[in-house]
UniProtKB/TrEMBL annotation:
Record bears the keyword Membrane: yes
Source species: Paenibacillus faecis
Protein origin, superkingdom: Bacteria
Keywords assigned by UniProt, alphabetized: Membrane, Transmembrane, Transmembrane helix
Protein's name according to its UniProt entry: Uncharacterized protein
Transmembrane segments: 21-39, 51-69, 96-116, 136-157, 207-228
Amino acid sequence: MKTALEQLRRGLSFDFKLQKQPVAGLVVLIFLLYLIGILSGDPNRPRMVYYFSEMGMFPLVIMMTLVMFQRELGGGGMEMIATYPVSLHLIALRKWLLALGYASVLNVGWMLVYLAKFGEIKTLMYPWSGGEGVKVSTGIPALMLQNLPAFMLLSSLTLAGMLIFRKTYGGLVSGFSIWVLDTISRGDLLKGFTLYAEFLPVDGTFVANRLVLLAGAGGLLGFSLWLIGKRDRWIVEEEE
């Protein structure tokens, strides 16, 4: 137990040193541009909320997942870590959760600034009990919950891509490909499986859409935890 807690403490100490990850600086820069976009808006014509809550946050979720695994997969650290008597499954799960946690902090950040600027967050919201979406004034927790399944899917997809290719670019390609295709098609490509609540088709069901995203996220995460646990995939490269 003591050993496990010590390993967790050491792991978290590295995970919190985001300033050492180059991509983290890019995430901060993009986030600051979002805030500038909000603050420079006309108070009488509020910015479209989904530009930030979905279109803007989706790439940040992908990038934060990359940030959390950049040291291991970008710097060749997995070859060494795989030889240690540590749980690779728990390392991956911890980093995946932290990526979502950091993304959630950014999510709350822009919403607080938006509220300060425009006084309310008014966007398309769907009831979890079923029914059509209605554009209403909503709170931070409700909007976060509505978008969480899409965040989880993108993070899991990015992680799976990185582990399959054993390189960070694998996650970038897999995560950004889905985001770009879904964005430029405005949901027409994925239709009822779109990441965007804003683009959900008229005949689509919000609850079914979110459940599919959650199932996809869970499946990809489970696959990733299984794949990262195959130590021979990481150690062989060092021996070559």
